[in-house]
What does this fold into?
Amino acid sequence: MPDADDLKEGKKYYTDVPQETEGFFLKGCGHLDWGMKNRLARIFNPKSGRTVMLAIDHGYFQGPTTGLERVDLNIVPLIPHADTLMLTRGMLRSVVPPSLDTPIVLRASGGSSILKELSNEGIAVDVEDCMRLNVCAMAVQVFIGGEFEKESIMNMTRMVDIGTRYGIPTLAVTAVGTDMARDARYFRLATRICAELGANYVKSYYVEKDFETITSSCPVPIVMAGGKKIPEIDALTMAYRAVQEGAAGVDMGRNIFQSDAPVAMLKAVGAVVHNNETPEKALELYQTLKNQE
Ligand code: R5P
It folds into this structure.
């Protein structure tokens, strides 16, 4: 213990240097608390302001999706190449090594299956477990226009209340029913409702026309959902357009883990998202890396 009488007069006060007050790089998140910002800064790269989330939570309502039959064999090797991993707590605990430091976004809603009405979800995880699992955000599905619209919105607002109490951000995942139009008008409505009711960031599908009106009218970051598997050049083009039109990254599943070369695809998407690489250049990168795999 230092002696009290050994204290020297401090000289390094730098009275002429004002203390810097750092702004926060994510849209609409400047007034959040430190823990929230710290978790968001692990999900989103502070340099690019964007993220590549690898989504592997499909099993929570549809079982072992193609490419996710053996998460231990097919997905674990990909995890270090993703900025963030989105999955369920069951898969996290049973197969993901805790030594990996990729931030986790935990699927927090559930309770339905492909055999029944998908919008009939509830909150499926306790916040204590989210803290125990050291997660960086909790993801809740919101079914605007769906049969259980109100319940799914209330699931999200409840998670926002709990998350705000403990400093854990909530990601609202906009889900589209089979009979709903996937257009900018729908996603402006859905993403804005989620943001107005407190979501810290929102996941939206990409639409060819007027996507930028969705990102500009949503006051918090939007990440683009991937959707069903399409050719690599099309997926890279979709990701490129989304970030150029205002998305803060992507949350992709099947277009990565169903690709012939998933690590190469993850890196190619990363080049598009973080370095503004064109889809053509990113495809070249994908093919080069694929040949090396
Ligand atoms: C869907 O409900 C899941 O939450 C997935 O995370 C989401 O659909 C993204 O995966 P994909 O890119 O395969 O659509």
Summary: The beta strands are 51-55, 84-87, 104-107, 109-110, 122-123, 137-142, 170-174, 201-204, 222-225, 249-252. The chain is about 40% helix and 15% strand. The pocket of ribose-5-phosphate is lined by residues 55, 57-58, 86, 173, 225-227, 251-255 (CB under 6 Å). The chain has a mean pLDDT of 94.
